[in-house]
Write a structure and sequence with these properties.
mainly alpha, 4 helices
């Protein structure tokens, strides 16, 4: 099962299933993340600023995940996530 959740959801999953694999997708940098959010044009400057304030908590909690993948290049990010999932499946099967 694949879930796309925030770090609070990750805490809940970890508590419910200790065998769950948690993969944290990291931006290449905080500046890159701010640019991506702003480029979408779906949030005001104030909303972007507020969202960036939450990033610190997210990044800190994300460091507790089993796997951290930098989401800079989509193809590489997908490849890294799939490799982590495959390795986890093999570990559980043994």
């Amino acid at each position: 099962m694949l879930l796309i959740i925030d770090v609070d959801g990750g805490k809940q999953i970890r508590a419910l299933d200790p065998n769950a694999l948690l993969i944290f997708l990291k931006p290449p940098s905080r500046n890159a993340l701010r640019e991506r959010i702003a480029k979408r044009g779906t949030e005001t400057d104030a909303e972007v600023t507020k969202r960036m304030e939450r990033v610190e908590k997210e990044m800190e909690e994300g460091e507790k995940y089993h796997v951290k993948v930098v989401n800079d290049d989509l193809d590489a990010c997908i490849k890294d996530c799939l490799a982590a999932i495959q390795a986890h499946r093999e570990k559980l099967a043994s």
